[in-house]
Amino acid sequence: MPKARHTRGAPALRATLSGGGWLPHGYRLAPHTHDQGQLVYAAAGTLATTTDRGTWVAPAHRVTWTPPGFAHSHRFYGRTDARLLAVPIDLCGELVDHPSVFGVSPLLREAVLALTDERPENRPGARRRLLAVVVDELCDTPEQSLHLPEPGDDRLRAVTDLLHADPGRPATLADLGRAAGANERTLSRLFHTELGMSFHQWRTTLRIHHALAHLTGGMSVTDTAMACGWSNPSSFIDAFSSVVGQTPGTYQADLRESRTLP
What GO terms are given for molecular function (predicted)? Predict the structure, then answer.
């Protein structure tokens, strides 16, 4: 059985670069920047990190990475055991130079938990050596970004704003284009050239983001599928599994298990 983790609460995390604390569902950390890099891991719960390049979501077993100098904000879904870990400038060059999400191995999880617990450093340099292990683990881990890029083009932004307002909206790109006053062919091209994905891929990622929040909050798989625009639970399960790497039911089971750990 893992040892009890002693962490701080939400107020202590507002102005810290490193530490841990239990945060309530929907808790937000307002936009801010750091001179160092930062890793944020939800040992229980789900988090979203947003920059001007879009939003990255980290469900169970993933950690967000924000390099130095990027203005970013965080939002937490479900009661979240949030772990914030600073990465010194001299180690940041080992990692990618853009915000991203990485998978969390058992070794990486335990190292992050140890570094964010409130415990004294008994041997000089011990924290630095453990932090080097974290960086080494991330260097050997492929990116697993649930990244939702945001457009700069006003025509495309008008369409994505409609979808943000109602992710389950069953409209086609032509329907959305008429509502936004833009041509379907032009919008399709902009999705590929500006966002690097098709309209269908972007909307699916948006819906998965919302589905993760609903599932973390305890909504059933069927109700989540309907709320996020899937015509039936089976198609939702297939899409969720292909993006997240596990079924919605397994994801919720993992969340329940993580909440029972001390």
Answer: DNA-binding transcription factor activity; sequence-specific DNA binding
* Cα distances (angstroms) measured from residue 60 to each of 27, 28, 169, 190: 17, 18, 27, 32
Domains annotated for the chain, with CATH where assigned, are 8-147 (2.60.120.280), 148-260 (1.10.10.60)
Mean pLDDT of 136-156: 88
Give the count of beta carbons closer than 10 Å to the beta carbon of residue 225: 25
pTM of the model: 0.80
Instruction: Inform me whether the pLDDT recorded for 13 exceeds 70.
Output: no
Mean pLDDT of 127-134: 93
**pLDDT 10s digits, 84-94:** 999 999 999 99
pLDDT at 259: 60
3-class state of residue 65 by DSSP:
strand
Are the CB atoms for 155 and 182 separated by under 8 Å? yes
Cα-Cα-Cα-Cα dihedral of 218, 45, 105, 56, to 10°?
A: 100
**Residue position matching structure tokens 């890099």:** 37
